[in-house]
Amino acid sequence: MEALATETDDKDLERLFAEARRYPLLTSEQEKEIDGRKWDAVGELQKLMLDDEAGVEFFFQWAANCNHTALDISYFENREHHFILRRELATYMPGASHAEAVNNFCKALQRKRTTKYRLEQLADLEMPASLTVGLAILFLRQNGIALADSVADALVQWSVHWSKSERSSSATRTAEESVIPGKWSTAKVAVGRTTRQSMIAQLDLYADARDTLTMHNLRLVYSIAGRYRGKGVNYLDLVQEGTLGLIRAAEKYDYRKGFRFSTYCFNWITQAIRRHVGDTGGLIRYPTHVQEQVSKLYRIRLNEQQRTGEEPGDAALANAAGISLEKTRDLLQLRNLGISLDTPQYEDEDTTLLDTMSGGPFAASERRAETDSLQSRLLLEMETLDRAEREVVVARWGLHDGPPLSRAEIADKLSVSREWVRQLERAALAKLSRNERIQDVFSDYMTSSVD
Q1: Range among 224-238, 270-284, 323-337 rated most confident
Q2: Segment 101-148, tens digit of pLDDT
Q3: What is the mean pLDDT of residues 287-303?
Q4: What would the pLDDT profile of 39-52 be if each residue is shown by its tens digit?
Q5: Which long-range contacts (CB under 8 A, 24 or more apart) does 162-166 make?
Q6: Is 338 helix (H, G, I), strand (E, B) or coil?
Q7: Nearest alpha carbon to residue 184 among 205, 209, 156, 210
Q8: Three-class DSSP category at 97
Q9: How many whole angstroms separate alpha carbon 58 and alpha carbon 157?
Q10: CB within 8 A of 40, min separation 6: which ones?
């Protein structure tokens, strides 16, 4: 690593390595002690919330809505928040592995049970530390305490759409039966000052333990990032993405499972860096495993060419790589490939690449009033469309309050096929293109824009 630092004149990079050398690698016992502090803090956060009546109510609303409020992408202004929350709650949604445990937790919160019993039910959820912290921070935000956290940010947007549920002391009443019409209020909930202060203290302990694990393994990030230099991505960007993967590993790591943190975080760092290289290293993005297969195939072809002095044919290359001839030819065509967005995505389907792309948003304009006027006129003229056509166009081009959606996302939302969405879109656009009022308004807008 010191050799890497001497190879560059970048002062920022030199500073990174110098800073990393201040944090020596941890021993196994040190990792256990630090991670133990992290999980102790998480356990205390759960206990503090379940000791407080407001916290019990908050936990119940969250658990009940895991069953009743879908993670609809239209609920989220930032799509990244949708992906974060889907990652955190994947095992708790209906039909998932921990759905039954969520129901049991709801029942424990409905009945007059001890905190110990409720904690035992909560333990069955195997809740990740990041989700516990996100819920705790959202709970504190509702009590006027501003704390930063990406999971809490995602929970805020989702909680706006929570259904109001009422707890009952009846042992026969389940969470499903208790949901009533209306929305759950995200207004402040009354919680004791002592509880708030104790929760803040535990959050500080959690952050300190997580950051300690992170700082003492930064050199591993620099080492792994160095292996991906020369792939079209700046080295400091690789370090940044690797560090994000390291932080995620520090949040999920559990020393009680018996392996070292340095072993556990290696895959998280590598995965984060590989994904970033795949997303930004080329003009066309392919899945990470496909990129690795393509690179392996070209590497084998180069080795065979050096060994024999001749470029191997497709059949010889397939035999050397141990894959089928058809797959070999498909992989060879991926590098530097440009194709039409209207090309069928699969041979046996009509789905195109365009189906996976959103239709908007419209380009920004310096004259916002004119843009708003154009959009208002468009929405007015869209009243002439059929209801289904109007819904598709509004969702496709982001004319509603949410982000623009792809055809696949609209199809899932409307519970129809992507082909049906495509037909509705084409029919709607054909009608709008023949609308003389829209043509006149757009012509005036373009003329004024040029002037």
Answers
A1: 224-238
A2: 999 998 888 887 888 999 999 999 999 999 999 999 999 998 888 899
A3: 78
A4: 999 999 999 999 98
A5: 162/61, 162/65, 162/69, 162/186, 163/64, 163/65, 163/68, 163/69, 164/61, 165/60, 165/61, 165/64, 165/65, 165/68
A6: coil
A7: 156
A8: coil
A9: 15
A10: 205
CA distances from 392 to 42, 354, 382 (A): 44, 15, 11
Which among 278, 227, 220, 207 has a CA at the least distance from the CA of 246? Answer: 220
**Under 8 Å between Cβ of 294 and 307:** no
Residue 105 token pair: 């937790």
Please state which of the ranges 238-247, 302-311, 330-339 shows the lowest mean pLDDT. Answer: 330-339
Question: What confidence tier does 341 reach under pLDDT thresholds 50, 70, 90?
Answer: low
Res. 299 pLDDT band, cuts 50 70 90: confident
Are the beta carbons of 61 and 165 closer than 8 angstroms?
A: yes
pLDDT at 282: 58
Q: Of 141-150, 313-322, 353-362, give the lowest mean pLDDT range.
A: 353-362
Q: Which residue in 270, 156, 136 sits closest to 204, CA to CA?
A: 136
Per-residue pLDDT tens digits for 168-177 = 544 334 434 4
Q: Are 438 and 378 within 8 A, CB to CB?
A: yes
- Distance of alpha carbon 220 from alpha carbon 267, whole angstroms: 11
User: 253 near 265, Cβ under 8 Å?
Assistant: yes
Q: Could you give the 3-state DSSP secondary structure of residue 163?
A: strand
Which structure tokens are listed for 391?
Answer: 């819904």
Residue 337, Cβ neighbours under 10 Å: how many?
Answer: 10
For the four alpha carbons of 110, 113, 115 and 121, in that order, the dihedral sign comes to: negative
Please give the average per-residue pLDDT across 186-206, as a whole number. Answer: 80
Q: Are 70 and 299 in contact (CB under 8 A)?
A: no
Helix (H) or strand (E) holding 165: strand 163-165
For residue 352, the cross-strand partners are: 344
Residue appearing with tokens 């690698």: 25
Lookup result for tokens 């020596």: 24
Q: How far is CA 374 from CA 358, 378, 437, in A?
A: 20, 6, 11
The two three-digit tokens of residue 340, written as one number: 């039409």
